[in-house]
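Example S7 (structure tokens).
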């Protein structure tokens, strides 16, 4: 079960991670921690982004018959691991809320542009990987709607989110008053933890599909992901129909 939606200021967590653990916050491997990362490790980190984006481009091309085009947006770009790779295929803007991560992305001097403000668009390609899974779903769904509203006709997406988790990641459940007390204690505990924690949130895929369909996404493909027992999907798609305000 995900932490309560109001339990954490997740933006503050990611600003702190951007200042203290900018690479590990993106890929949680010991080699990428601030105290252990090397110049060679940084290059390995960015090379992994090129490999991932090559797979995304190949999958979108196979689905739609053509490669994604710009302008492109990498939502939750962090230090630019994927945005720099995307820039090899299309003019790319990386968006993030973490000043520390954006500073490192800019210092690298790559081809992408970086900002903390969502550009108006329209975009020919919107990508997001291991980002929505750290945003409470109520807020994340609003962000998803906003992003899709900025997608150009014919524009493509490669967006990952999580949907369920292994039992070892679930909180013990109770019923009635015991559950109410347990939830209140859990919320209090979550609020007392230091800033800089990483939380995982699960999305209702039926609600996600509705948002995508209403935005004009008809051609889609889902590929499963598994991050240490947190299961989700990468959604590939193209906007092929006019957006709707409600189901037909």
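Recovered sequence:
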């Amino acid at each position: 079960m995900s932490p309560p939606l109001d339990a954490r200021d997740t933006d503050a967590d990611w600003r702190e991670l951007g200042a203290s653990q900018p690479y590990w916050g993106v890929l949680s491997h010991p080699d990428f921690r601030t105290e252990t990362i090397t110049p060679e490790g940084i290059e390995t980190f960015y090379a992994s982004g090129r490999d991932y984006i090559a797979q995304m481009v190949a999958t979108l091309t196979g689905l739609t018959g053509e490669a994604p085009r710009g302008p492109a947006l990498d939502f939750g770009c962090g230090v630019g691991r994927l945005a720099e790779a995307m820039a090899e295929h299309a003019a790319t803007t990386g968006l993030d809320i973490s000043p520390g991560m954006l500073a490192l992305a800019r210092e690298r001097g790559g081809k992408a542009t970086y900002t903390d403000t969502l550009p108006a668009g329209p975009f020919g390609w919107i990508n997001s990987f291991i980002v929505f899974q750290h945003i409470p779903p109520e807020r994340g769904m609003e962000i998803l709607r906003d992003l899709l509203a900025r997608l150009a006709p014919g524009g493509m997406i490669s967006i990952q989110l999580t949907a369920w988790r292994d039992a070892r990641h679930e909180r013990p459940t109770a019923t009635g008053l015991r559950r109410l007390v347990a939830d209140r204690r859990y919320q209090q505990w979550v609020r007392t933890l230091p800033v800089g924690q990483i939380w995982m949130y699960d999305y209702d895929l039926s609600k996600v599909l509705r948002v995508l369909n209403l935005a004009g996404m008809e051609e889609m493909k889902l590929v499963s992901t598994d991050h240490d027992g947190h299961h989700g999907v990468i959604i590939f798609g193209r906007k092929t129909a006019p957006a709707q305000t409600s189901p037909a």
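Notes on this example. Helices lie at 10-20, 39-64, 83-86, 99-107, 137-149, 176-192, 205-214.
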